[in-house]
Design brief:
The complex is a heterodimer of chains A (608) and B (433).
Chain A: H1 5-31, H2 34-43, E1 44-49, E2 56-57, E3 63-75, H3 85-92, H4 96-108, H5 110-113, E4 118-125, H6 126-135, E5 142-151, H7 158-161, E6 164-166, H8 169-174, E7 183-185, H9 188-192, H10 194-198, E8 202-208, E9 214-217, E10 233-234, H11 239-249, E11 254-260, E12 265-272, H12 277-281, H13 283-292, H14 301-304, H15 314-324, E13 338-342, E14 345-348, H16 358-364, H17 367-378, H18 386-399, H19 421-428, H20 452-463, E15 467-468, E16 490-491, H21 499-511, E17 531-537, E18 545-552, E19 559-565, H22 575-588, H23 594-602
Parallel strand pairs in A: 2-10
Antiparallel strand pairs in A: 1-8, 2-3, 3-4, 3-5, 6-7, 8-9, 11-12, 11-19, 13-14, 15-16, 17-18, 18-19
Chain B: H1 12-15, H2 18-40, H3 53-74, H4 78-101, E1 103-105, E2 108-114, E3 117-119, H5 121-137, H6 147-166, H7 170-175, H8 180-185, H9 190-208, H10 211-229, H11 238-268, H12 271-280, H13 287-302, H14 330-363, H15 367-391, H16 409-432
Antiparallel strand pairs in B: 1-2, 2-3
The chains are: A alpha+beta (608), B mainly alpha (433).
């Protein structure tokens, strides 16, 4: 045969082509090992086993947040054969139409669904699932999987407890140890100790194909890893007190915070209106409704709302005045229905006898008296200027925990606001502002903003005569450590000895006979020596806010409370009885004033 | 047409190319076993069960053999040359018609469906194109170096190719590049072939891998060419200088081409035009889908190792990780279950098949037979390279079957027809000479 030279070249070309293919094959089949490893991951499927979340307990070990079993009924449409729809509907408590509609949907999208297993009905209670299980054999393709969901024995309020939801892409980006399909505590108590509550996922190894069809357990589960349940977390909350607080605050807008002064432990923390525990267990369903509600139930007022504290702040100003030496307990100041701070300008006050000393000014909550006090503080000769004196005042105020987040372990805590001299310089011009310009600060109005938690902390500070432990909500237990921050005493810049002067006034405010001018006599509890201070904070959006702080007993206090009720009027009207009932509940176990309790619980200040 | 009377001067054994037939049968058998292996775990049943693809493939094989016998014994081989022009015209018509009348399968309008049976004109069109090309180029007056003749041949190839591109079947269209082999053998300068091949390679490399890699490959090829071309020439000779010039020129032109490819692609083209090309190249059909296919396919082949896991023992292909595992990705099953050794054997079998066809073609005294043989060899070689290249990540994912092995009646029938027409043409010569 006579061979064309091109024939030879073509044969060589084919040889080169084959060599390229074989070269690459040699590389991936013999040299590179990674493909073999990938292959073993491929055919073995690690099916995640989710651990039950840890329980959240109250300070006495009562379950605040527990777990309960629900079943999700799953369906693999490819494996479903003709079945008795009426029977399935009866067993599952649903309608035949619902089942038909679902099956029609699976038929329509059968190519997209393929071999997948999909949820048919979610969260079926155990008793109902048991009825299905009896007849399960009649419904091939249907099967149930157990799920552990949250259960709430007490109505402790959704904002405190927080919710758990499936993680989304942005969460995974921030927390790389989570996978799609995991659940995480997103707010409140669920979020604080997510790491412990979460537990450890396990897995079961199966052989499967890429169409999600599981073939068999791999080596009889030899390599399976069981899930480790989440650890229980004990909180400082008193479940019954919290529940009672929720009841008292029902139908009102505001916050109720109780702290054990000696430890800084938060006993109760109510934000109202809030997320109810029913809504909490299926937050996904209610999310839209909640976020549209005009009362913003998802907004946790206790740590995020910044309110002017009102007259309760007079205590702080009084203490600063005493410490700075510009006020003595026996100083008397006159008050004729208010304080004239500039020509034709008067900061009003209610009618009471005049002049008053510090005790009585606190007892009767005299505005005029504290205008003099604040004027003295700013006019202190020790300082060169109003501005310098003001900054000193601010430093004192901040030492009470105002103007910055307290550093509580509760998530999303905000810090309120205490203006600086720089702020007024910007607003009014340097040196262009003086005491009369900012007179409202005397009585806790104006540019001051404080969270209910900060106000409660102030009550605890006064109760402790000058120090506080940063309020916190997780109790140290075996396996759960808490930051040393929550064990250290923080002293204010005011000497401990000064506190008895204001505490006496607070005692008188509650415990004088009616008619003597005490503003909070409604809060008196026989035998408990409650000390309190009312406040009526002006509210630009409507009726005044009703504020009350108190602690009891006077000596060796066990509880300090701050109640803040929006648009409720005078402090004594709502905040005082609410706080007082809470104190009584905590210290006595039940109230001696059932009519008052009935009245408070039964009154709704908001309509919805 | 007349049916050939029994006029054989030689015995059957001497006239048929039994080696070629044996290679054909072995490859078909390997295909059948691989198809069974690929569906074994998901749909376990007898290899003959007609409910699954292995059973259906058995039917396709049986009918293909009947077809082969008819082509070899019942049809006068002269017929093919006679019908080449009308057949070509009919197929061009069908190729156009299928765009409007065909059913859409995997995003391309290239199939006619008659109930359960689907048929792809592009498969048959390879045969009619080969036949017409052979008929035209075997005329005594045809000269490749004459521009008019060259243009005629180029037109015969390009027309169906462009229609198939319009059908969105880029893979099938790419196969037509295999006909360049014929043009080369019949007198087209190797430079044209080399140039076209180089440009296609650079185009694909620049877009799928990177411009740098494309240029690196170009330089290596130019140097290898230069070293091969100067063998036996004297230092400083004119030949040697010409080779050097050509090698340098091709580096320069190729580099400019690669750079402009990515520049034009990334900067000049509009988004929709760019994504169209990306889809054509299999870069973007849906990235995750295509990437998934290649990844799974390489895992399956790579996990086979040297000797493979054994027939029906593969976990990747039998458990259904690899998509299209009985059609376009059938080579995965071979790679996983028979390992590198199996791949080597299969590729060797193809090389033997192709070179046997080329050998017979060269031996033939009939230009028609020779040219047709080269067409068949070119098509099979293109299918082989593109298909296997795709499963191991050398080529973009463009779905074309592995000849004789992949599942599917349309493909098996057309390759059978194509090969046995050639066997018949060869036999006819041997019968009389």
């Amino acid at each position: 045969m006579e061979v064309s030279p091109k024939y030879r070249r073509i044969i060589i070309g084919l040889g080169v082509m084959a060599a390229v293919l074989l070269g690459k094959l040699f590389y991936i089949q013999i040299i590179n090992d990674s493909y073999k490893r990938s292959a073993s991951n491929n055919s073995m499927v690690y099916q995640t086993v989710y651990p039950p979340r840890g329980l959240i307990l109250d300070r006495d070990g009562r379950v605040l947040v527990g777990n309960t079993v629900r079943y999700d009924l799953m369906v693999t449409p490819r494996e479903v054969t003709a079945f008795d729809t009426v029977m399935l509907a009866t067993v599952l408590d649903t309608t035949v139409d619902f089942i038909r509609e679902r099956m029609q949907y699976y038929r329509t999208y059968r190519t997209r669904i393929g071999f997948q297993t999909l949820p048919f009905i979610k969260q079926i209670p155990a008793e109902q699932y048991a009825r299905f299980a009896e007849v399960e054999y009649m419904f091939p393709g249907f099967s149930g999987i157990m799920r552990s969901i949250r259960e709430y024995p007490y109505d402790a309020g959704g904002n405190l407890l927080g919710y758990v939801s499936e993680v989304d892409a942005s969460f995974i980006e921030k927390h790389p140890d989570y996978r799609s399909g995991d659940y995480a505590g997103r707010t409140g108590l669920e979020a604080i100790r997510e790491r412990e509550l979460r537990g450890e996922k396990g897995y079961h190894v199966f052989l499967r194909d890429s169409r999600n069809k599981v073939r068999s357990s791999y080596l009889d589960g030899q390599f399976d890893k069981e899930a480790v349940p989440g650890s229980n977390v004990t909180t400082t909350i008193d479940a019954q007190l919290q529940h009672y607080g929720q009841e008292l605050m029902a139908g009102k807008v505001g916050s109720l915070v109780a702290i054990e002064p000696s430890t800084g432990e938060i006993l109760a923390m109510v934000s109202s209106p809030g997320i109810s525990v029913e809504q909490l267990s299926s937050i996904g369903k209610y999310y839209g409704e909640l976020s549209r509600d005009k009362y913003k139930p998802m907004f946790n007022r206790t740590v995020q709302a910044s309110y002017p504290p009102g007259s309760v702040f007079k205590l702080v100003n009084g203490l600063i005045g005493l410490e700075e030496g510009v006020l003595e307990p026996q100083y008397y100041y006159p008050c004729d229905h208010g304080f004239v701070y500039a020509k034709e300008h008067k900061l009003g006050c209610h009618g009471h006898r005049s002049p008053l000393n510090l005790d009585d000014a606190i007892m009767m909550s005299c505005n005029g008296y504290f205008c003099y006090v604040f004027r003295n503080i700013l006019g202190n000769r020790k300082y060169d200027s109003t501005s310098e004196a003001f900054d000193k005042w601010r430093e004192y105020v901040m030492s009470f925990g105002f103007g910055h987040p307290l550093g509580s372990d509760f998530p999303s805590e905000l810090g309120g606001n205490i203006p600086s001299s720089g702020y007024y310089d910007r607003v009014y011009g340097k040196r262009a502002w003086r005491f009369p310009t900012i007179v409202s600060l005397s009585i806790g109005q104006g540019e001051i903003g404080a969270t209910p938690l900060q106000i409660a902390n102030m009550a605890a500070t006064v109760a402790n005569r000058g120090w506080y432990i940063t309020p916190h909500i997780i109790k140290e237990t075996e396996g759960i450590e808490i930051d040393s921050l929550y064990k250290e005493k923080r002293y204010t810049m005011v000497d401990t000895l000064q506190f008895r002067n204001v505490i006496h006034g607070m005692w008188k405010a509650v415990n004088t006979r009616p008619g003597d001018g005490g503003t909070a006599t409604i809060a008196a509890i026989p035998g408990l020596d409650v000390c309190g201070k009312t406040g009526t904070a002006q509210n630009p959006h409507g009726k005044d806010n009703s504020v009350f702080i108190c602690f009891a007993p006077m000596d060796n206090p066990k509880i300090a409370v701050a109640a803040y009720v929006e648009n409720a009027g005078f402090g004594a009207a709502w905040a005082s009885p609410i706080a007082s009932l809470l104190v009584e509940k905590y210290l006595c176990g039940e109230t001696s004033r059932p009519e008052l309790e009935e009245h408070i619980k039964g009154t709704r200040l908001i309509q919805n | 047409m007349a049916i050939v009377k029994n006029s054989s001067q030689r015995r059957l054994a001497a006239t048929l190319d039994w080696a070629l037939i044996a290679l054909y049968l072995v490859l078909v058998l390997i295909g059948w076993l691989s198809i069974y292996a690929s569906i074994y775990a998901t749909e376990p049943s007898s290899i003959f069960s007609f409910d699954v693809r292995s059973g259906k493939q058995f039917v396709w094989i049986a009918t293909s053999l009947v077809l082969a016998v008819i082509v070899v014994f019942a049809v006068n081989p002269r017929l093919w040359e006679v019908v080449s022009l009308p057949a070509y015209i009919v197929l061009v018509f069908l190729l156009v018609a299928v765009i409007f009348a065909g059913s859409e399968i995997k995003g391309s309008h290239s199939w006619f469906s008659f109930g359960a049976i689907s048929f792809q004109p592009a498969e048959i069109s390879k045969i009619t194109t080969s036949l017409l090309l052979a008929a035209v180029m075997s005329r005594p007056t045809f000269k490749m170096t004459v521009l008019k003749d060259f243009a005629r041949a180029a037109f015969i190839i390009a027309l169906p190719m462009l229609i198939i591109v319009a059908e969105n079947e880029t893979g099938s269209a790419l196969v037509y590049l295999g006909f360049l082999l014929v043009l080369y053998r019949e007198g087209m300068s190797g430079w044209v072939l080399g140039f076209i091949g180089l440009m296609v390679l650079l185009f694909i490399l620049s877009l799928t891998v990177s411009t740098t890699v494309a240029i690196a490959v170009l330089v290596v090829l130019a140097v290898v060419y230069y070293l091969l071309d100067i063998r036996g020439t004297r230092r400083g000779s004119l030949d040697r200088r010409r080779s050097r010039l050509l090698a340098l020129a091709s580096i320069v032109v190729g580099t400019l081409f690669s750079l402009s490819t990515s520049l034009v692609f990334n900067k000049v083209l509009q988004d929709h035009q760019r994504s169209r090309i990306e889809v054509l190249l299999g870069l973007k059909e849906d990235i995750s889908g295509v990437g998934y296919n290649v990844h799974q396919s390489m895992i399956a082949i790579g996990s086979g190792g040297f000797a493979g896991k054994g027939w029906l023992q593969g976990t990747q292909t039998t458990y259904g990780f690899v998509p299209e595992q009985s059609t376009d990705f059938i080579f995965c099953t071979i790679g996983e279950e028979f390992g590198f050794l199996g791949c080597l054997v299969v590729i060797a079998l193809y090389l033997l098949l192709i070179s046997r066809i080329l050998h017979d073609a060269e031996e033939s005294r009939e230009a028609f037979t020779r040219i047709y043989g080269y067409c068949v060899a070119g098509c099979i070689a293109m299918h082989l390279f593109v298909n296997i290249g795709m499963t191991i990540g050398l080529m973009p994912v463009i779905g074309i079957p592995l000849p004789l092995i992949s599942y599917g009646g349309s493909s098996l029938w057309s390759f059978t027809l194509m090969i046995f027409i050639f066997i018949a043409l060869v036999r006819q010569e041997r019968k009389y000479f």
